[in-house]
From TrEMBL:
Record keywords, A-Z: Membrane, Transmembrane, Transmembrane helix
Organism, as annotated: Streptomyces hoynatensis
Stated name of the protein: Molybdopterin-binding oxidoreductase
First and last residue of the signal peptide: none
Gene Ontology biological process terms in this record: sulfur compound metabolic process
Gene3D superfamilies xref list: 2.60.40.650, Oxidoreductase, molybdopterin-binding domain
């Protein structure tokens, strides 16, 4: 009986080894095609696209900026389990091995060729992966049987099996390493264009951040979020590495009198403005950290649209939606009226004084003060199409999110938190509040549901940025609940009703704090 069980375990091992061979071959074969065609990336991207909104929402909430790594790991684990089962099956019914490998390959091919910008060549990596996995499984399964010349009733040859298993593993490791090396070389070309990019000084620089905009309170982040700490939300399993030299932006569509096509250098030669804008994700839960503030440099989007002959709906223009498309097929739609209303909507080329990091959209992204990222902040931009909200639902809108996404007034307590227990006495309670393009006029804090107490506001940079605040609490020992609310410069108080709405979460941030005697 032990023989049967160990045979089963070896079958499972075969499946896992064959899957490894397939994945490594897929990575290697993707190198000359394109990164997006690698089976795991293509299937992962397709899973993201096909997932119901509730699932992606959950993934962003649970994994935040690590949702991609979690998905990749999930796919590999699931594939490993399925491959182990296939290996066990193949040990009994040999044809099941190649048949199963082909089935997995078909899923990879289907995912890869339906990705935005895919060509027929995108099918190759998954095909190669299927052939490698099927071949490896057939070979390893055969080794679980007695050698052809063995006397009848002989057990299988352990030594021959181990030799086949270890050479499969070694060949996979080699193919994987080579694939990784080739990909690094391809990325290096895009990295070189980014490294060579010199952003000219802005014609309209941002005013210096007022000295009083940053409060010196421990636990409060910097006023400008460093690029490496800036939150990242997108559906790209593999960050696009766009070569700026070949990049083009096309502006066309409804009501466009003169179509425009611009290269990266064309943008850099135009009038550049520099502005501080706080970006926020619609998925940011109350108290969450999917919000960041940066100094962006770029071209005024309104200038380009006017040049193309675009008019706002209030001026008789026919298009009410500006649809941005990225190189990875994402679509984001902003109201034309908002983009042309005089605010500093940008095609940004720099973030905090350096070319956009690849993760944040190199070479060019959109930034519109006052709109959530999913309806404005297109990264790796390649096309701007003028259309209507009736005619086209952008990516997230088609998945149940609101078509229009003005940012809701919010406030957050950054210190103290559940993880730091202050001592009784004067405790600074501090955080940030934002109401982009309107500005913050007041922040209040209360303890244990008591009366609202006015916090001290840090100096305002611009109405498009968040504002830090601090309140000095005479804390007594014990468990307490702190709560915060902000008021915008129109006098509107941040709503109390708690809703994880499809147009941005509302409610007030509460923090439980244990004060030590
Ligand atoms: N191409 C592309 N652009 C995108 C997205 C995306 O998935 N793909 N996500 C949007 C969303 S939902 C947000 S909140 C912002 C986040 O920008 P960041 O990652 O630079 O913080 O990018 C926006 N731009
Ligand atoms: Mo977002």
């Amino acid at each position: 009986m032990g023989g049967v069980r160990s045979h089963r375990a070896l079958g499972a091992l075969n499946g896992v080894l064959a899957a490894g061979a397939g994945l490594a071959t897929g990575e290697l074969a993707a190198a000359p095609v394109r990164g997006e065609a690698s089976p795991v990336t293509a299937v992962g991207d397709a899973v993201i696209d096909l997932s119901p909104a509730a699932v992606t929402r959950w993934a962003i909430e649970v994994f935040g900026s690590h949702d991609k790594a979690a998905l990749r790991a999930g796919i590999v684990v699931l594939l490993g389990l399925a491959a182990a089962a296939l290996g066990v099956l193949a040990a009994r019914h040999r044809p099941a091995g190649p048949a199963g490998a082909l089935a997995f390959g078909a899923v990879g091919v289907a995912a890869a060729v339906t990705r935005p910008g895919a060509g027929p060549a995108d099918a190759l990596p998954s095909l190669c992966a299927a052939v490698a996995a099927g071949g490896a499984l057939a070979l390893l399964t055969a080794r679980l049987r007695p050698a052809p010349a063995a006397p009848p009733g002989a057990a299988f040859d352990r030594r021959r099996f181990l030799a086949a298993a270890s050479s499969t593993a070694a060949a996979s490791a080699l193919a994987g390493l080579l694939g990784g090396r080739l990909r690094a070389t391809g990325d290096a070309a895009a990295e070189a264009t980014r490294a060579a990019t010199v952003i000219p000084p802005a014609d309209s620089p941002a005013a210096a951040v007022p000295a009083g905009a940053s409060l010196d309170v421990e636990g409060l982040g910097p006023f400008l979020t460093p690029n490496r700490d800036f939150y990242r939300i997108d559906t790209a399993l593999r960050v696009p590495r766009v070569d700026a030299a070949g990049w083009r932006l096309r502006i066309h569509g409804l009501g466009v009198a003169r179509e425009l096509t611009l290269g990266f250098e064309d943008l850099l030669r135009r009038e550049l403005i520099e502005r501080d804008v706080t970006l926020t994700c619609v998925s940011n839960p109350v108290g969450g950290d999917l919000v960041g503030n940066a100094r962006w440099t770029g071209v005024r989007l309104a200038d380009l649209l006017r040049e193309a002959g675009v008019r706002a709906p209030s001026e008789g223009g026919r298009a009410d939606q500006l649809l941005a498309r990225s190189v990875d097929g994402m679509t984001l739609g902003s109201p034309v009226e908002t983009v042309l209303d005089g605010r500093d909507a940008l095609l940004a080329v720099a973030m905090n004084g350096e070319p956009l990091p690849f993760e944040h959209g190199f070479p060019v992204r959109m930034v519109v003060p006052g709109l959530y990222g999913y309806v404005s902040a297109c990264k790796w931009l390649r096309e701007l199409e003028l259309t209507t909200f009736d005619a086209y639902d952008a990516y997230w809108v088609a998945r149940g999110w609101a078509a229009k996404g003005p940012i809701k007034t919010q406030s957050r307590i950054d210190t103290p938190g559940p993880s730091r227990s202050p001592r009784a006495g004067t405790v600074p309670v501090a955080g940030v509040a934002w109401a982009q393009h309107t500005g913050i006029s007041r922040v209040e804090v209360r303890v244990d549901g008591g009366p609202w107490q006015e916090a001290t506001l840090a100096a305002q940079d611009t109405v498009d940025t968040w504002r830090q605040w601090v309140w000095h609490w005479e804390a007594t020992a014990g468990e307490h609940e702190l709560q915060v609310r902000a008021t915008d410069r129109d006098g509107v108080v941040q709503t109390e009703s708690e809703a994880p709405a499809d147009d941005g979460a509302t409610g007030r941030h509460r923090v439980r704090v244990r004060v030590e005697p």
